[in-house]
Amino acid sequence: MSILDSKIPEGHISQKWTDYKDHLRLVAPNNRPKIDVIVVGTGLAGASAAASLGEMGYNVKAFCFQDSPRRAHSIAAQGGINAAKNYQNDGDSVYRLFYDTIKGGDYRAREANVHRLAEVSGNIIDQCVAQGVPFAREYGGLLDNRSFGGTQVQRTFYAAGQTGQQLLLGAYSAISRQIGLGNVQMYNRHEMLDLVKVDGKARGIIARNLITGELERHSAHAVILCTGGYGNVYFLSTNAMGSNVTAAWKAHKRGAYFANPCYVQIHPTCIPVHGTNQSKLTLMSESLRNSGRIWVPKKKEDAEAIRAGKMRPTEIAEEDRDYYLERRYPAFGNLVPRDVASRAAKERCDAGFGIEANDTMEGVYLDFSSEIKAKGKQTAYASGNHNPSEEEIIKLGKKWVEEKYGNLFQMYEKITDENPYETPMKIYPAVHYTMGGVWVDYNLQSTIPGCFVAGEANFSDHGANRLGASALMQGLADGYFVVPYTVSDYLAGDIRTGKISTDLPEFEEAENHVKDLISKFLTNNGSKTVDHFHKRLGHIMWNKVGMGRNVQGLTEAISEIAALREEFYKDVYVPGDANELNPELEKALRVADFMELGQLMARDALQRNESCGGHFREEYQDAEGETLRDDENFNFVGAWEYKGMDINQSELHKEVLNYEYIKIAARNYK
Predict the structure, then answer these.
(1) Each residue of 497-544: pLDDT tens digit?
(2) Going by C-beta distance under 8 Å and a sequence separation of 6 or more, which residues neighbour residue 562?
(3) How are beta strands 59-63 and 36-40 bridged, if at all?
(4) CA 173/CA 30 separation, integer angstroms
(5) Which of 413, 151, 88 is nearest to 289 (CA)?
(6) Quick check: helix, strand or coil at residue 36?
(7) pTM given for the model
(8) Beta strand ranges found along 476-536 (DSSP E)
(9) d(CA 424, CA 174)
(10) DSSP 8-class letter at 284
């Protein structure tokens, strides 16, 4: 085991990034066209990185497996983007955003990276406004803010319930401009299937054209992976169906350490699982927790009557409702961080108070009736009606809620056929975001020189739990404001290298490796579909490496996944041909990687004998069911080195986390 060097610069935390940037090496404008950069993934992190590097004059090749960068999963981030601008004059600052992020991550994030994120957050808003992103505005024309979980200020900028989509369109317009100028070459419908190293450095990728099936070699002086998270290892998640870990995992198998794989975020406001054949879960934005109150019935017989369809939630009197987050966490109420809210929902449902008539009887209510009444009264009063009728109050309140969250309410009604203005929404926690990812240093460079990782694909900014509205912030911070500096510093050593040939033996070896794997799947003649195995993997992961974990379950998961993986290679059936559009082949290659990752997640969770953030070990909790960290023994990032097909051989390396500017304390939202 080695101690990892994160290359954090010297100096006071408020000056580190500024001083560091001032001393980085540069590539002169006339030399940039001589240098090639590959960007894999064109969501917020990838599109912003490709656009920025293209604008600087580098030759950029950008790859996405969708038909357009506009399809990236970033569009699904509905609620907003954090930035420390203090527009609401409620005490926000760069330091407070930094502090909230470290505390929200349960003191398991790297201070220097998080402070940099908080510093550049304001620039992101200015950049996006300049691009024409239609952020919500107040009556006077100023940008509006709302609250999100884990904070006591309003710092979340938003565009109705489609913030991610609008930000992505801004980044897409920036990358489109560079494509038009010839600085960025866009490869749609291409998937990276291996990383190519030459003399120890990342020098290219093997990509499959998903339309023709052709394998292609692409060389570059640096490779930037911006390929999102790995939540689909659980099969059921809020991620887009195509989201996967393959690009990051291939880099891991080529020598990039994979950090904190066990840190997975379970989002508390997802529409509950409906049936056994479901393949995708839908997230309701965290922004709804600003206005909705979460509750279950106080009496078990009421919960049973609701599940049996004999009673409606509106029939339950106010005094018979348990607003359990407000009861347990009065200081933050319904806006506690996601991991805290999720565990609290699980605790109520495990105790028999769940309200959804599904297999597991899991579900709680998110109720807008109080907000509708409050805003209705407020609106009536503002318009001069100081004594409105109940009917007028509800009508005006619904109108206010519709303006704020209309598209989310519409989406919920389409999916469930229930009107959330009249009946409380049903929600339950589901796998959402992954805080773990490829280990990177302060430069966002992995343990492979020349292989940089940005956005959700790296591990760097969120510790053991991500605060809501921070994913968009990290993706754009990395792409617009970090990578252009740090990658340039690395590339300054490459101005004399010249074009890198794809005829090198390393490209040949990597391509043959991919060919062999594809051939193996297509000639397997098994009897079961890829989805059959993926569902079984997801079942093991959710039950044993999910919201609650313990030694027995994690030990079983490691051996059960090993057996499943063996069966998968023996008995999976992949129809079709290599040289054609073949979605089943795409899935098989991705599920093969999920199998290995799932085992590593269980191993990582097993070695971390503490509870922190999204990693909840049942053996380590206090009397009130809150996380019990062990700061003496586990105040480190766990980064794993790949040592072959047997994941039990993977080697753990530690990056010790030093907190100089924030005092480590028990997380308290009460």
Answers:
(1) 999 999 999 999 999 999 999 999 999 999 999 999 999 999 999 999
(2) 599, 647
(3) parallel
(4) 25
(5) 151
(6) strand
(7) 0.97
(8) none
(9) 41
(10) P
